[in-house]
Backbone:
């Protein structure tokens, strides 16, 4: 069964490549270009997994993460966080806030696809 | 009940009273506790200087050696009145750095070295043995005198104390001290209880001695006249009075008031307020004066009334008994008891702190007997170490008393201890006044002085009488006569004390100076030197080591094992609150780590605290950036330090500069770090697209041709973006470094603007933007670089194109020249720049989020333009505007080339399809 995945990423080309990869992996993909849009889409139709950029316009990835984890219906939503900052303390913060996986840009395509697959299988915290 | 039993009961009752006072003082609520923090209590606690040596021994000394006993009061009096500035300086530093002992003080100054701390500790411990022995002996003999009051009125049999009695007293003192002194591990949590008890004992001493004195003058003698008449007969002025030995003894006792561990403890560690020192400066000498006033009358009347062969050290006790006043005798006994116990308690607290912090703790840290990473209760370990140390110290004192030296007069035993403690003086004064003094000098001086003292003064007192030592002393070791302990380098001195004092302090000072001059100090030594020597000009925590990383949890774990969870929690909470952070634990930064290190230093000393903090923060967690930063700072500090030593008259100013430079460096470092992290982020973004699409192209053979082409286009575009980004960063670096690329030349700004508009035509046409130009600035000339100026115009124009209106976009360009300035404005009719972004628009990497996907660069364009215009002496500003964003570029004109022209007629109009 196809899974629905939301990609929240403001860099158009990166969003484009992610869409290509995850669509090809058999998922149904939708895009959000900033934090507010992402949150609106999440509320309208919660996806099966979320790929979340850290540095989003309008509302940061941490902010969205915090909001999602505070709400009952999205507490267990598998979330993969992407960041180009590559700093250890960001990873720690993300983990403290309850992210399921954390990938640094530039990423290997396989890593993203496999991590998403693992998250969808429910192996989030493995 | 015999007099001795009565005395024993009194002593026990008095000890109970002291416990009660200490208990109440510690438990009292903050308001009333302030009573104990008065300058009077502080001064009385300093008089712990007056031990049973001065209480009993001064009379003995006066009987044996005339007026010499006065020197012991004169030295401290001189220091408190004449050299008050030394005390104030030590106090200021001790309070600032939470110093725990004299060993901690000296080691802090010499690079927080645990070697220095250990040497001072060993020296202090050895020197303390005779001193403690003196107190045990005094209490033991006073018991014996009271016990034999009937048959031996002069106490002559008490010359050598009874071993069993002395042992019981030693055990009692150990228990007493442990109960009193080791309740809290953080001795910088000032110990109200002990200080209050010491102050009461000081009062008892004073009252007792004055009572015995009044008895001597008005009870035994017939008033002062009688005493003076007898004095003229019995106390003959001797030729050596007021001679060289006098000077030596005054120097010695002056050194002792600074260097004795217990004096350091009460004067500097337990001090509540710097203002208290002002009171002590006159009140303590006054206390000494009153105490010394009756010594001579007591000695004279004792000689006159007691049988020949009496023990002169016990006159204070035997004279009242002989006069039939057992009440005063009992009071005198209590005074002697107070003198001895207060000395033992404070000495043991000071020494046990030094032993546990500077010997046990470093060894434990090194052998990892104390595990800081988990498990292991350091606090309890420290307390146990301190208790064991107290027992050890008292045992040393007891054993010393049992040697041959135990038979000597109280005063001569005390002087041996003074001479040992005085070996710290060169390192102490050097720490305060000589910035060039360093660790090597301190170690060399302390070892040289300590060794000479031990060889010429201390060892003879315990080994004298052994055949091997006597042979050595007579002929010199290996027959080298110039090394005889009583005649070093062939100097025949009749006075072993002065002989030892002369050589030990001379060689100590020489080694200290030569050691310091033969090695350059390390950076931390320089830093500490500056912080100590210039304590009054150098406020603030410039001495923090930076770049240490650890989590708040790790640090808390460490702290709670040293000071207990409650206090550790309170420190963390208070610090977080003081920073306005709502969390329990503060965010860890250099300032907090330094703060915590100071708090730990209050428990375990500077050297151990530093080692502990390092064990948690660990060097392996220091990032490369931080290493560079620390290295930079160290290099800069060393540069400044070298300059400071060269120009001593500029010391004050240099310190201010150092702080300013430090601050500047800090802020530049922060900016640089931010910049690097931004650059990394900006470079990673196009790299991500390039890598991802490349992998897609490689890994997807069945990709259809149209998509393949689109992906290749994206890779191409992102590569160009990456190149542009690198160019911008390099540009920025060149401009920020301020290197002139080319000598400035006259430039026609209007022509540069023309060129920029031409260059942007392609872009504006694609985006459907019309550029309208008005105004004129004919023949205007500015000094600068034409291509840089063109770059500024292009940057602003292309921004206007990117972020301007989506439909019917118009960019209006105006220019004029006059009043010494060339002014160009570029205005678009887009959404404008929101106020919150307007403030940071010229900062690096600040980029309007709205059009980010169109932007090619890293957002350095405006920052670069701003820097260029500033270098040309002009301004680039975002002007308030009703429609869209409006930038104004203002440049100074070359003086003679200016032409006023403000005609608002259209000059040219570029347009493209809309």
Residues:
């Amino acid at each position: 069964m196809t899974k629905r995945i939301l990609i929240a990423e403001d860099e158009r080309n990166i969003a484009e490549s992610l869409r290509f990869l995850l669509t090809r992996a058999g998922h149904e993909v939708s895009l959000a270009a900033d934090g507010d849009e992402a949150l609106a889409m999440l509320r309208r139709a919660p996806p099966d997994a979320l790929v979340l950029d850290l540095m989003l316009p309008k509302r940061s990835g941490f902010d969205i993460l915090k909001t999602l984890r505070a709400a009952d219906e999205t507490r267990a939503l598998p979330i993969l966080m992407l960041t180009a900052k590559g700093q250890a303390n960001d990873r720690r913060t993300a983990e403290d806030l309850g992210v399921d996986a954390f990938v640094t840009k530039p990423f290997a395509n396989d890593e993203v696809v496999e991590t998403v697959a693992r998250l969808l299988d429910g192996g989030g915290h493995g | 009940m015999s007099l001795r039993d009565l005395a024993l009961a009194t002593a026990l009752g008095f000890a109970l009273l002291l416990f009660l006072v200490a208990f109440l003082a510690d438990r009292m609520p903050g308001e009333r506790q302030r009573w104990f923090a008065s300058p009077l209590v502080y001064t009385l606690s300093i008089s712990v200087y007056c031990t049973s040596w001065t209480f009993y021994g001064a009379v003995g000394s006066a009987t044996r050696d005339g007026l010499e006993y006065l020197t012991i009061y004169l030295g401290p009096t001189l220091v408190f009145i004449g050299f008050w500035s030394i005390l104030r300086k030590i106090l200021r530093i001790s309070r600032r750095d939470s110093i725990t002992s004299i060993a901690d003080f000296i080691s802090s100054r010499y690079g927080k070295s645990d070697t220095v701390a250990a040497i001072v500790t060993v020296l202090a411990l050895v020197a303390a043995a005779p001193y403690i022995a003196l107190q045990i002996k005094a209490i033991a003999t006073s018991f014996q005198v009271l016990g034999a009051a009937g048959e031996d009125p002069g106490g002559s049999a008490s010359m050598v104390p009874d071993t069993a009695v002395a042992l019981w007293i030693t055990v009692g003192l150990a228990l007493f001290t442990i109960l009193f002194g080791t309740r809290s591990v953080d001795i910088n949590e000032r110990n109200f209880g002990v200080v209050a008890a010491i102050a009461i004992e000081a009062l008892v001493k004073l009252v007792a001695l004055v009572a015995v004195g009044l008895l001597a003058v008005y009870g035994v003698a017939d008033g002062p006249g009688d005493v003076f008449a007898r004095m003229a007969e019995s106390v003959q002025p001797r030729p050596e009075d007021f001679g060289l030995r006098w000077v030596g003894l005054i120097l010695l006792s002056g050194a002792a008031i600074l260097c004795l561990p217990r004096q350091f403890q009460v004067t500097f560690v337990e001090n509540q307020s710097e203002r208290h020192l002002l009171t002590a400066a006159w009140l303590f000498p006054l206390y000494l004066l009153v105490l010394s006033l009756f010594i001579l009358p007591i000695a004279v009347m004792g000689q006159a009334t007691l049988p020949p062969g009496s023990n002169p050290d016990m006159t204070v006790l035997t004279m009242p008994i002989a006069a039939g006043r057992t009440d005063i005798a009992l009071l005198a006994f209590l005074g002697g008891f107070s003198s001895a116990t207060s000395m033992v308690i404070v000495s043991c607290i000071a020494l046990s702190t030094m032993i546990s912090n500077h010997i046990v703790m470093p060894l434990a840290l090194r052998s990892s007997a104390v595990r800081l990473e988990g498990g292991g209760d350091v606090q309890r370990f420290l307390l146990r170490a301190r208790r064991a140390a107290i027992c050890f110290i008292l045992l040393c004192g007891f054993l010393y008393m049992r040697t041959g030296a135990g038979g000597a007069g109280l005063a001569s035993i005390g002087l041996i201890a003074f001479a040992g403690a005085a070996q710290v003086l060169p390192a102490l004064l050097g720490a305060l006044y000589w910035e060039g003094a360093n660790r090597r000098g301190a170690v060399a001086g302390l070892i040289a002085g300590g060794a000479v003292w031990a060889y010429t003064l201390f060892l003879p007192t315990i080994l004298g009488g052994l055949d091997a030592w006597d042979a050595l002393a007579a002929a010199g070791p290996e027959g080298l006569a110039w090394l005889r302990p009583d005649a070093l380098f062939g100097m025949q001195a009749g006075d072993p004390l002065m002989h030892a004092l002369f050589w030990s302090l001379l060689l100590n000072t020489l080694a200290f100076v030569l050691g310091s001059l033969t090695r350059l100090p390390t950076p931390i030594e320089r830093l500490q030197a500056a912080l100590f020597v210039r304590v009054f000009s150098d406020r603030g925590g410039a001495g923090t080591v930076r770049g240490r990383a650890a989590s708040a949890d790790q640090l808390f774990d460490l702290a709670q094992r040293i000071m207990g969870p409650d206090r550790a929690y309170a420190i963390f909470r208070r610090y977080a609150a003081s920073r306005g952070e709502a969390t329990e634990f503060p965010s860890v930064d250099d300032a907090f780590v330094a703060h915590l290190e100071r708090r730990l230093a209050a428990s375990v000393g500077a050297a151990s605290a530093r080692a502990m903090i390092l064990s948690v923060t660990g060097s392996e967690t220091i990032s490369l950036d931080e290493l560079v930063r620390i290295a930079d700072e160290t290099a800069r500090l060393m540069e400044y330090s070298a300059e400071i030593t060269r120009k001593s008259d500029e010391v004050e100013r240099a310190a201010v500069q150092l702080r300013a430079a430090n601050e500047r460096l800090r802020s530049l470092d922060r900016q640089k770090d931010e910049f690097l992290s931004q650059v990394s982020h900006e470079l990673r973004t196009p790299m991500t697209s390039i890598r991802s699409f490349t992998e897609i192209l490689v890994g997807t053979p069945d990709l259809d041709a149209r998509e393949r082409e689109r992906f290749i286009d994206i890779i191409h575009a992102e590569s160009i973006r990456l190149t542009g980004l690198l160019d911008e960063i390099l540009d920025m670096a060149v401009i920020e470094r301020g290197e002139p690329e080319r000598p400035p030349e006259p430039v026609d700004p209007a022509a540069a603007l023309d060129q920029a508009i031409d260059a942007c035509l392609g872009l504006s046409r694609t985006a459907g933007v019309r550029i309208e130009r008005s105004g004129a600035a004919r023949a205007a000339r500015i000094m600068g670089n034409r291509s840089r100026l063109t770059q500024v115009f292009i940057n602003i124009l292309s921004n206007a194109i990117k972020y301007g209106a989506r439909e019917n976009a118009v960019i209006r360009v105006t220019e004029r020249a006059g009043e010494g300035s060339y002014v160009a404005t570029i205005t678009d009719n887009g959404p404008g720049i929101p106020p919150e972004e307007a403030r940071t628009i010229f900062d690096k990497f600040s980029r309007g989020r709205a059009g980010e996907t169109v932007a090619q660069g890293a957002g350095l364009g405006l920052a670069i333009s701003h820097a260029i215009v500033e270098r040309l002496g002009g301004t680039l500003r975002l002007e308030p505007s009703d429609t869209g964003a409006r930038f104004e570029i203002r440049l100074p004109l070359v003086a003679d080339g200016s032409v006023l022209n403000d005609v608002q007629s259209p000059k040219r109009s570029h347009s493209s399809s809309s």
Remarks:
- The two ends of chain B are 121 Å apart (CA to CA).
- The beta strands of chain B are 745-747, 769-775, 782-784, 809-818, 821-828, 875-879, 886-892, 906-910.
- Chain B touches chain A through 22 residues (CB under 8 Å).
